[in-house]
Design a protein that fits this description.
Elements (H helix, E strand, L loop, with lengths): L7 E9 L3 H8 L14 E4 L10 E6 L2 E11 L3 E8 L2 E2 L5 E10 L5 E10 L3 H33 L5 H7 L4 E5 L2
Antiparallel strand pairs: 1-8, 1-9, 2-3, 3-4, 4-5, 5-6, 5-7, 7-8
Amino acid sequence: MSAGAAVQREEVSVLVNLPVEESWERLQDFSQAHCYVPKLTKTQIVSAQRHGEGAHRRVYSGKRYLEETITDWYPGSGFVIRLHKGDRAMPPFRSAEFEYTISCSGAMQTQVRLSMRIEMPGGAVGRFLAGKLIMPVVRQNLIQVAAGLKHFYETGEPANNGDRARLAGAVRVASAGS
C-alpha cells in the first residue's frame, strides 16, 4: 500500500471447530484456495516456494486467473497476500491485499479473521466509489470465503454455494470500511 494513501478495509471472522495447530496446517497449504473461495476452479503454485514469504500462485475462474503472492508471513498465525496480474495490482485497484489471521479460541476452536485492504485510483472520487460500490461487494465476498473456509477446514470437503449459504450466518463482520 502507498504511504499516506487512503486505504479502505473490510474484515470478517469465523470460528472453526479445529485446534489452532490443525487450522495452521490447512491455512499454510497455499494450493487449496479453490476448495473454499467462491467461483475459483483451480489453484496453481507458480513459484518453487510452496508457502512462506515469496510464494506465488495463480487462482483460476475458468480460464481467467489472478496472481497472489505472499508478502508477509507470520508462522503459526497467518500471512498477507498481494493480489495482482503481473506487476500491476488487481484491476480496478491501485493496490489490493488479502490477509488471513488465525488465533486460538479454546482447545478445539480457531478464530479465523479475513481482511481485504484496497487502495483506489482517482483520489476522493475513487474512495467514494469504492465505499459505495466496491466495499459492499468485498464484504459479501469475504463472508462467502469465510463460510467456505469453515466448511472446508471442518469437513475436508470442498465448499459449494449451499455450504457457504448455510454457514454465512456464522461469519461476523468485524469492521465496515475504513
